[in-house]
Amino acid sequence: MLVAVLAVFLGAVVWAVARFGLEAADQTASVVGGTVALVSLPISLYALRAPGGVGAGAAVDGGSAAREWVPAAAVDASLRPPVTTARVRGRDSELALVNRLARSGRGMAVVCGAGGLGKTTLAAEAACQAQQARRAVFWIGWQNDPSRLAEDLARVAQDLGLAEKRLEAARRGRAVLVDVVWEHLASVPGWVVVVDNVDTPARVGPGRDAVASYRGWLRPDGAGLLVVTSRDTAVGTWGRRVQLVQLEPLEEMAAAAVLADAAPSAGSEAEARALAVRLGGLPLALEAAGRYLATATSRYRSFIAYREALDREFGDLLGAEHPQAADPEIARTVVRHTWDLSLEQLHADGYTLARPLLRLLALLGAAPVPRSLIIPALLADATGQDVTAAALDAALAGLHQYALLGSPRTAVDTSAGDGAAVSVGQVVLHPVVREVMAISLPGSDPAPWHTVLDAHLTQAVQDTVAAGRPGWPTARLLAPHLPPLLDRATDQTFTDARDTLDALADTLHEAGTSTEEHLLRQHVLDAETRHLGPDHSDTLSSRGSLANALYGLGQHQEAADLQRQNLSARERALGPRHPDTLISRNNLANALNDLGQHQEAADLHRRTLTDFERTLGPRHPDTLISRNNLANALGSLGQYQEAADLHRRTLTDRERTLGLHHPDTLMSGNNLAVTLNDLGQRQEAADLHRRTLTDFERTLGPRHPDTLISRNNLANALGSLGQYQEAADLHRRTLTDRERTLGADHPDTLASRHNLARAEAAMTQAGSSWWSRLRRRGRP
Q1: How big is the CA angle at 676 (ends 673 and 678), to the nearest 5 degrees?
Q2: How many other C-beta atoms can be found within 10 angstroms of the C-beta atom of residue 85?
Q3: What is the distance between the alpha carbons of residues 354 and 359, in angstroms, rounded to a whole number?
Q4: Counts of helices then strands in the chain (DSSP H, E)
Q5: How far, in Å, CA of 202 to CA of 146, rounded?
Q6: Which residues contact 98 (CB under 8 A, 6 or more apart)?
Q7: Which residues pair with 141 in a beta bridge?
Q8: CB 715 within 8 A of CB 755
Q9: CA dihedral 254, 256, 262, 263 (to 10 degrees)
Q10: Could you tell me which of 542, 467, 551 has the C-alpha nearest to residue 505?
Q11: Rg, C-alpha atoms of the chain
Q12: Secondary structure in 3-state letters for 598-652
């Protein structure tokens, strides 16, 4: 019937245009339109109420107890969700979760995370998908005003059919308005309400703790889905009945896609990925970079050029001030200012240490920070304020609550044995947050803050070194933060700063963490070369230490080149038989042996051993190292009996001079067992390997690189005995640990992968006698 009336209206308008012209047609349309409106009003109302009428909908997913219609067309224009234009990348699982909750027809989801992670964008996309699923969708922007929120939710309830007389009764005090609204929302299925940017949930009301107790304006009690976006990620804020959808930075591929969407001509996928990594996957930064690159007048139009410019001009490209930053809506869209909103809120909530603490953390390296470094004295020295442990803990908790610090992690000492892992707390700061906060220091001179940090870093290194093995996890966390300490050193403080880095590098060497050791060794060598010159004795020592770190990383050619350079310099400066010269010759021979130059290595080791025995004596630790390494080289040449004799003699001397459980003693036991296996004494070799592995695990832990060498060699010995299953199990475990600790491409990892493949093949080809062997290198 309504269609027929509309047809009459349109026919009248067309006839009027043809007969009298547009002006008269307008008058005709007005008259006819008014008549149609009067006639169609009761028809429309009937259609909305009728079970099969326009705008009607069935109960959603089990909501049969509620009303069975949803007036989807009745959403006020001011409550409609924003239209999404850009494609949402990398949030498939989060969108799927929100959509699943919408289909279930009940509940409350809080999309939360730090500023700049795209919470509003995700909510807008979820709202769009809900509309496509024919749900009634409403969008409310939180204005930090509970009365405005009350008004908006009351309008939502009206659009969903709440009678005016019920509202009027509540307004006159005959009912509680919030309860009236939510009782109605609990009776109507199929809706989605988004309340955006609720960054001050404590103000939502009515009443204290209204949110977590679900007595206020935000409740999980409706017959539809309430979606809230907020920077507050605390479960205690929202209660246990809500679904927290916490956003993290985008993964590399998704982040690169955001850049490519915005600037498709700016470069290749690989170049977009490199820039995405540089921006830490932060959607706000990615969007800002994309807009910049897509602008024809921008100075940098490629992903490569923009990424390189960030190192020089971060403040101009992403850290620039905005003249209207006082407006929260604008501040949310500007990388420089978006986190100020959270910091201001934390300050207003009484967390006065949050801002200076975040700025102090931003002056450290772009890596996790050990929690043990963040002590009251550090912040007190930097700010001049009295700082208690409770206040510091509260500031950290507040920063984490607003996602300005990443999720707290625990660094576990992967070398820990005896079933007791050593755990070290750490704090994670997003790289873009770090860079923005670093340029936002009060005043123009960050030097006083750096001075405080350097003093506390130095003390932290001293404490870590003194702790021995329990300090190894902290040492790994401290390493990335130390190079700037040396860069900032003056001529007067250079030696102390250098010694601090060297001390931590020595500890990292003991821990077998070659990557972090290499970082510090390289930095020390570069600094000494500038300050002392390339031929200074300290510089030569540092070059040798760097070569040893490269050796530990499996970069044998680079290690050999540095050792050869050092050997020449020391022979010129110290003579051919000075102990330092002999150490360089020993280390060069080690590298040559691993490069496959076994005869040259053996000749060099034999000459070096003779000189060590004459210079230092037959039982000096350095002499024993030299003898051990000569035996290894002879084993590589197939001279197993001579190698075994040297290893047995070295093992005896090390037990006497170093003790039964010293790492060098254990390595001698490992090397003797390898040679015994080569000689065909397989059961004796396996027994010695098993004892040595047990001692390695107790002394260094189950995942130390030396322990993994021992486990690998035990597996080889068991394979030689035909115990293929146990051998394969040990190789599989060793491969997993080497991938974690050394990396997938380290030579030892590749050897483990090869050995595992052979062990698995041997289980189906019994009697196979080919087994790869990974020899233990001598400790330089």
Answers
A1: 115
A2: 6
A3: 9
A4: 35, 8
A5: 10
A6: 109, 111, 122, 123, 126, 225, 227, 245
A7: 196
A8: yes
A9: -160
A10: 542
A11: 36
A12: HHHHHHHHHHHHHHHHHHHCCCCHHHHHHHHHHHHHHHHCCCHHHHHHHHHHHHH
| pLDDT tens track for 360-397 | 999 999 999 999 999 999 999 999 999 999 999 999 99
Is the pTM higher than 0.90? The answer reads no
37-87 pLDDT per residue, tens? 333 333 333 333 333 332 333 222 333 333 333 444 456 778 999 987 778
Phi and psi (nearest 5°) for 398?
A: -65, -45
**Counting every residue, how long is the chain?**
780
Cβ atoms within 10 Å of 348's Cβ, excluding its own: 11
Residue with tokens 């093995």: 469
318 touches 336 (CB < 8 A) = yes
Q: What is the 3-state secondary structure (H, E, C) of 409-438?
A: EEEECCCCCCCCCCEEEEECCCHHHHHHHH
254-268 b/e (C-beta count within 10 Å ≥ 16 → b): bbbbbbbbbbeebbe
Q: What is the DSSP letter of 229?
A: E
Please report, to the nearest 10 degrees, the dihedral formed by the alpha carbons of residues 551, 552, 553, 558 taken in order: -10
Pairing, β 369-370 against β 225-230? unpaired
pLDDT digits (tens, 9 = 90+) for 574-609: 999 999 999 999 999 999 999 999 999 999 999 999
Cα–Cα distance between 434 and 440 in angstroms, integer?
10
* CA atoms within 13 A of residue 635's CA, in its CB half-sphere: 28
Beta bridge pairs of residue 649? none
CA 687 to chain CA centroid, nearest Å: 43
> What does residue 121 show for φ and ψ, rounded to 5 degrees?
-60, -45
